[in-house]
Amino acid sequence: MIFSIMQVPFLDFHYSPKEEEDIMAAINRVIKSRWFILGREVEQLEALYAQFNAVKYCVGVSNGLDALHLALRALEVGAGDEVIVPSNTYIASVLAITHVGAMPVFVEPRMGTYNINPDLIEEKISNKTKVIIPVHLYGHACEMDSIMHIAEKNNLHLVEDNAQAHGAMFNGKLTGSFGDINATSFYPTKNLGALGDAGALTTDSENLFLKVRQYRNYGSNRKYFNEVIGYNARLDELQAAILNVKLIHLNAANEERKIIASLYREGLKNIGEVQLPQIAEKATSVYHQFVIRTKRRDELLAFLHAKGIQTMIHYPVPPHLQRAYAYLGYRKGDLPIAEEIADTVLSLPIYPGLKQAQVEYVCEMIQCYFRN
Ligand SMILES: *Cc1c(COP(=O)(O)O)cnc(C)c1O
What we know:
The chain is an alpha/beta fold. It contains eleven helices and 13 strands.
């Protein structure tokens, strides 16, 4: 088959005419209300997202990093404490730990699922360990039964980083509903994305709910009375109003991502030099990313680029090798699985509105590259 060049952007924000109209109406509603911070839109989003995520409480905040940070604050994690975090994650999971003055302790992922390997957690637990942060990377739920078991057995808190996995499940239970308190992001490119920065915490604990609500608003429940040294980590009404519309479309958007993922799986099977993402037993994925691995990643990326296909690398440098964390003293080779992942992963375009013909073109071009 001969293909002419087709443009496949890595990302393309796609709204149905109805969705776009509803978003405009929501924005207008906020403008007309003359109320911009902590009002009815934020309250509605908190109620709807708690319901979506099957938890008692949700607190809207400014972004995903602040959500993680406030979760650790609420659990009173600080100097002298250790927090277990996967070595293969976005930097924000680690930044939250060092922001509260605690020490990140990295646990390697499984190569197949890219997620934290529960078999390697216990050897990293010390008498300083306070929290485990599983990250449901690329939309794939972590192996939550083993992780929960380890947390309970060792009396550790659990904080899920659910920024990439709104709607994913383990054993029929939603990610973001396992931990003591969990963080998520509504950054525009996430499965549920605002039109700016936004995030949230989810919990079943009334105590933690009240604490993070206080922390997000200067440590205050009553205006000008401050109980704790808080932050400004509020979600604004405009983003909440937009999210209230977009949340209605989340399940359909996730289904579209799953269909695209199965098209990739079909189109890329049997290429010996390409490893496809694996989903753990009892886990589902909402495919925030579709991440393949190949030793010839950089050449493949350049080849696809020349064919009009944009790809990305999530992520090129693991947190322990970032210059920001040089003081932790890690060297190349210390966390070899995360490092190999960083050297070999390639994220293919996946988003609602991506056409089947585009996915097939991407697959054909990858096949073509490995044939030659
Ligand atoms: C996006 C993301 C965050 C941070 O979210 P922001 O809203 O950008 O602060 C945290 N963890 C993971 C895994 C993410 O993908």
